[in-house]
Amino acid sequence: MGRSADGPAPYKDIAASLRTRIVRGELPRQLPKEITLSRQYGVARNTLRRALRALATEGLVTVTSGRGWFVTMADNDHSLAQARHRLIRSELRSRIEQGEFRPTNILPSEAAIARQYGVTRSTVRMGLGQLQDAGLITAVHGVGWFVRSE
Fold first, then answer.
1. Are residues 87 and 51 in the same domain?
2. Residue 90, number of CB atoms within 10 A of its CB
3. What is the CATH number of the domain that holds 21?
């Protein structure tokens, strides 16, 4: 996971990957050892620790001296909802930017997105609202969410 001249620092990419895996429930409550994760991501342990500290700031993980890193968002519904709507926002934005959803296309329904991510429609609306605030999508009352035309 190298750093490109204008791309994000590697720790941000690792934090995003781990955040996604945590939100999707793909990681156990106790995370794998730092050495295992650093090898998996191909980075130094200091880079991995920086990513983990970023997640700790968000309330998604915590460290216990001598024991390792633990997922904590299950204990914090607010952190879980925030992480999930960030994931929804990020993945939908990526699909729009890659052209999977083109201008004037309707997005999947709130109910469909909620089922896909295992969240409430309220959480979906938070992510969609942020995309709307960014000017990427617009809501048509009673119809759905559409990609804005340029």
1. no
2. 16
3. 1.10.10.10
